[in-house]
Write a structure and sequence with these properties.
271 residues, alpha/beta, TIM Barrel, eight-stranded mixed barrel, two-stranded antiparallel sheet, 5 helices
């Protein structure tokens, strides 16, 4: 997310490398009433200060890795002013994916599990896609977030955070056919189901065009349908304000945050 959607938006599957190090003191202050987001690309960088809310990427660019600077960045998020109603001071985002089409190349594709789509048997199916999403969310919470929160000495209850599903074409997805989109939706539904089961407030982050390509139409019976949206892609504060008035990614939700880039800093406008 942060550092990925700057300049021209590209499509494809890429591997995002980790940048090691710890955050320094502070960068420029976030504009009054706005938030900021950071993740592994900001390891070793000065971080914003004065933000109303801070959103931290739990993963290291892909759904199976951890942000190496997560403890320090969680502390940064909890230093947010918390002055915007409806925006928790510390929020999180998680990388998402569905590698079912290349499952022979990964070690994390599930081989069993009961899901709303039936039993997963290891095939490239909606059931195994859902199970994959559930397991990626579970690992992100239990193996990455919880140890980092405890190390940072901050609130470690997943129910006390907003969790955003970061959906970008730079991660691994199945083809944009209706069947591939259905499996992609199932993976996101599995992630959302786990986070909701842990008591978290869940939303979705994506460029609308990429969302349509990856996910397709979300119907009322999906647990994604009523999730709020966080829309990136603006280059200015006025552009972000305009995005606040755009349609949400799902018809049952609302646009809650719009992001723009100011130099090297992601600024998030509450809608």
């Amino acid at each position: 997310m942060s550092g990925v959607l700057r300049g021209l938006l590209v499509t494809g599957i890429t591997a995002v490398g980790l940048v090691l190090g710890l955050p320094a003191t502070s960068a420029s202050a976030a504009p009054d009433g706005n938030g900021a987001d950071v993740s592994h690309p900001q390891c070793g960088d000065d971080l914003p200060d004065g933000q109303a809310f801070g959103v931290v990427g739990v993963n290291g660019g892909v759904a199976t890795t951890a942000n190496p600077c997560l403890p320090a960045q969680l502390q940064w998020a909890w230093d947010s002013t918390g002055t915007v109603a409806g925006q928790p001071p510390a929020q999180l985002y998680v990388n998402t994916a569905n590698p079912g089409g290349v499952r022979e190349l990964v070690t994390t594709w599930p081989t069993d599990g009961e899901t709303p789509y039936g039993r997963c048997d290891g095939r490239n199916s909606p059931a195994c896609s859902w199970e994959y999403g559930w397991e990626r969310a579970r690992t992100t919470v239990t193996d990455f977030f919880l140890p980092a929160a405890e190390a940072a000495g901050v609130d470690a209850d997943p129910a006390h955070y907003s969790w955003w599903l970061d959906v970008e074409s730079e991660n691994t997805w199945q083809s944009g056919t209706p069947a591939g989109q259905a499996r992609n939706r199932a993976a996101l539904e599995g992630m959302a189901a786990y986070l909701i089961a842990r008591g978290g407030e869940v939303g979705v982050y994506a460029v609308p065009a990429q969302w349509r390509q990856i996910v397709g139409a979300v119907t009322w019976d999906s647990n994604l349908y009523r999730l709020d949206s966080w829309l990136p892609g603006a280059a200015t504060a006025s552009g972000a304000a305009a995005n606040c008035r755009r349609d949400p990614l799902t018809n049952g939700g609302e646009v809650a945050i719009a992001q723009y880039v100011d130099g090297d800093q992601d600024v998030n406008v509450p809608c």
